[in-house]
Each structure stands twice: as C-alpha cells, then as structure tokens.
Specification:
The chain is an alpha+beta fold and 449 residues long. The protein has 13 helices and 19 strands.
Length: 449
C-alpha cells in the first residue's frame, strides 16, 4: 500500500527567497535558466529533473523556462517584479508529453507578475535590459546561453541612437544563493524529514528481505519499490548495492553480483522527495549474522560515527570535525591490527588512507552533495551553523588485494551513514529510524525486527 505524501506548494516561500537573494545582489536584476533536457541515446531523453537553483527560487518544474527577477521599490519597501518565460500551452505536444503550465499558470500558480512564451525571451529581454548596468547571472553553467546573452548586450554598440554603453557588469549570484541553500529553513527541514522517512522504509525493507542467493539488483528492486510506494518519484543518486568485496569499491553501481552466505552487503541509497534527497548507508550480513571479524570492523566504524555525531554542533569547524574522524579511525585500525605504532603518527603520515579513502561527510539538500562552502574566501575552515544538514559516513575498507590488511579482514567493507540537522543546541539525526546497532540489525535481518 503506497503512502500519499504531498508538498503544499506556497508561492510566497519562493517569492521570499528571491527577495532575500536580490537584497544581497546590490540592485542587479537576476537571470536564471531552467535545466535543459538531455538526450540519452537516439531520440530517447533522460528523465527530466529541474535545476536545483531554479527550483529553489521558483518551485517550477518544467524545462525551457527562464526566470527574470527585477528589483523594485514599493514605497520604502524592497520588492521585485517576477517574469517567467515558459513553454506555451500546446494541445498537440501535451497529448504526447503531458500538461504544460503555460503563461497563465505561471502567474496563477507560481506567483509570477508576468509570463511570456519562451520564444519571446530574446525580444523582451532586449527591451527590458536596454539601460541595465548590472546583471546577476552565473556564467559558465551553459556556454550557449552565455553566448546568446552577450550577443544581446553587444547590440548596444550598433543600436540607434548609440549611447556608448558597454556590457553590464555581470555579478555571480551563486555564492549568495548557495549560502542561502546551505542553511535550511523550516519548510525545507520538513521535506527533508519526509525524504529521510521514505529512505528508512527502503533500507528497512532491504534488511528484511535480503538472503543468500539473491542478486544485488534484486535487492535494489525491493528497496527502490519501497521508495516509490513511499511517494518518492526518483532516487537522489544511483543506488550502491555492494556485497562482499564489492563494498571496497566506493561508488560501485553495477549491482549484478549474486550474494552469498557470509557476505556483508553495503547499501548506499537515498530517496528524493520534493527535490530534496536523503543519503544513507547501512552495512549488514546477508544471512542475518555477523562473523566475528565483520562485527569487529562494524563496531569500530559505529563507534567513530557516534563520536563524530556528538561533536557536530554550532561552532565546530569542518576541518577539526573531519580530523576527529581520521584520528579516531587510526585508533580503531590499531585495535584491528591493520596499523602499528602510535595513532598520532599514523594520523600525521596518513597511514589510515589505505583503509579510509574518503571524507567524513558533506552537505545534503536538493543535491546529494549539496552546495555550500567548506572554507571561507580567505581559506579558513567554516564552522557549523543551525540549519545546515550534513552526512556523517565513516568507513573502513579492506579489499581482498590489499596486502596491508590483516588476512582475516580482507574482503570486508563497512560504511555507516546518517543525515544530521545542525540545531541550536547540537544536532538531530533525521535518519535515526534505520537500525544500526548490531543486535537490531541482526534481529531485522533474521525476521525478528
């Protein structure tokens, strides 16, 4: 039975975001293009997913769209005029591709003050921008669109009457926009919790149905069916289902091996909901019971994750936080017999990199590796603030061909990952519903959960 989960679409949310961004851009109008459609092969297109920046500021999901937000003063109050260029209604195309919002819908449902067919963009933009000396636009994302834009402004030199105006100053809105997106508001947190809950349903399903003899792709199908039943239209990224030694390939996505008794299976997968993604990893025994060697590695990773979670709070720097994980993993690797000597020496020499090759975590939001800076423009590490959402995902990997790994650990790969919201007093685990204690994992895998 599927769950009916819906997002309440409120144009005021997007209007407020646009205004907040414009207030930081020094009076420059904002120009933003929707994500283009992409051919996969032949005449088959990839499934469309809106550009995250565009959706964040409009809530509009259709391709071939452009946002133009022009600052205005309403008395003493700052406001702006929103113009959306969209695909016009087209009865024949809608028979093939589905309903279009059209220009009326852009005004009625998405809060635009004006809306025009996308075919009129060139002519109308030329007229609107004639006297602008600034424009906020992210150059480089779409070279063809950039060239068209510069072509518009180059006409200033050949128009009548000639005003000897140069190309407007182009201001990049992305630093300010990404800083906004990095700190989630209450509306975003609510959506991300739904994405986390759906993801939990999928991971719990996978643990409950996994058994020796299944193929990784069969387990993937069970998990992703739970995502769809939960109301997620798509994954946040390609699912990783890595059994046995495949878990030691960090971004393994072939998912075609037949799982055996005695294997661990590492699943790194997240459902997307409302254009926000979860990102969770769980590692569990296919037959329901950890071996002693697997249990030792798993427990080591879990201890490090818990310690790093306790450290995630406002004021903690990203650099100190990631170093904490590496130092703690060095201690665990010494206990497992994978390293020798002192933990401090192993940390300084990066000896742990033979078994831990990635970072501790990353921002999470509309993109699975979400936007946001890890350093200030001066090169100093950022400190965490309330509203940030991050993953915590330590791991240990002992590939079968890693001669530095103890023999009894070779073939074992473990990662444990959850999604944390930084709060005023510390943090909140959005994905805590997914079991990760050994006793709870085994109980679920054995049908006792």
């Amino acid at each position: 039975m599927s769950k009916h989960r819906q997002i309440v679409h409120d144009p005021e949310i997007y209007r407020a975001r646009r205004q907040k961004l414009l207030d930081q851009l020094g009076g420059a109008p904002l120009l933003l293009r929707a994500a283009p459609t992409q051919l996969r092969n032949g005449d088959v297109q990839y499934s469309y997913r809106q550009d995250s920046n565009f959706y964040y500021l409009t809530g509009f999901e259709e391709p071939e769209s452009v946002l133009l937000a022009i600052p205005e003063l309403n008395g003493r109050k700052k406001s702006h005029r929103t113009i959306l260029f969209v695909r016009p209604k087209n009865k024949e195309r809608e028979i093939w591709d589905g309903a279009r919002c059209g220009t009326r819908g852009a005004i009625k449902d998405f809060g635009a003050h004006e809306s025009y067919p996308i075919e009129e963009l060139s002519e109308r933009f030329q007229a609107l921008s004639q006297d602008w000396n600034q424009l906020a636009h992210g150059l480089g994302a779409d070279p063809q669109f950039d060239a068209e834009l510069l072509g518009h402004f180059s006409k200033r030199f050949s128009g009548r009457p000639r005003r000897n105006q140069g190309i407007p100053q182009i201001i990049d809105p992305r630093p300010a926009l990404h800083a906004m997106r990095c700190k989630k508001d209450a509306h975003e947190v609510e959506i991300m919790q739904v994405a986390a809950d759906i993801t939990a349903e999928g991971h719990i399903t996978a643990m409950a149905v996994a058994e020796p003899g299944m193929y990784e792709f069969e387990l993937q199908a069970e998990m992703e069916a739970a995502f769809r039943h939960g109301g997620s239209p798509r994954n946040g990224y390609d699912s990783i289902l890595a059994s046995g030694n495949n878990a030691n390939t960090l971004h393994y996505i072939e998912n075609k091996r037949r799982m055996r008794s005695g294997d661990l299976v590492l699943i790194d997968a997240g459902a997307e909901f409302g254009h926000y993604s979860a990102d969770v990893t769980r590692t569990f025994p296919v037959n329901g019971t950890f071996t002693e060697a697997q249990k030792a590695v798993y427990s080591a990773v879990l201890r490090v994750q818990k310690k790093c979670a306790r450290a995630l709070k406002p004021g903690m720097s990203y650099k100190r936080w990631t170093e904490l994980a590496a130092r703690e993993l060095c201690k665990e690797l010494l206990g497992l017999g994978a390293l020798r000597g002192r933990a401090d020496t192993a940390f300084k020499k990066h000896s742990y990199r033979d078994f831990y090759m990635h970072g501790l975590g990353h921002y999470l939001g509309m993109d699975v590796h979400d936007c946001g800076a890890y350093e200030t423009p001066e090169g100093k590490p950022i400190t965490f603030e309330p509203g940030m959402v991050l993953t915590i995902e330590p791991g240990l990997y002992f590939a079968t061909n890693n001669k530095k790994a103890p023999k009894e650990l070779r073939g074992i790969g473990v990662r444990i990952e959850d999604n944390y919201l930084v709060t005023k007093d510390g943090n909140r685990n959005l994905t805590e519903a997914i079991p990760k204690e050994i006793r709870d994992v085994e109980a679920l895998c054995q049908g006792r959960g």
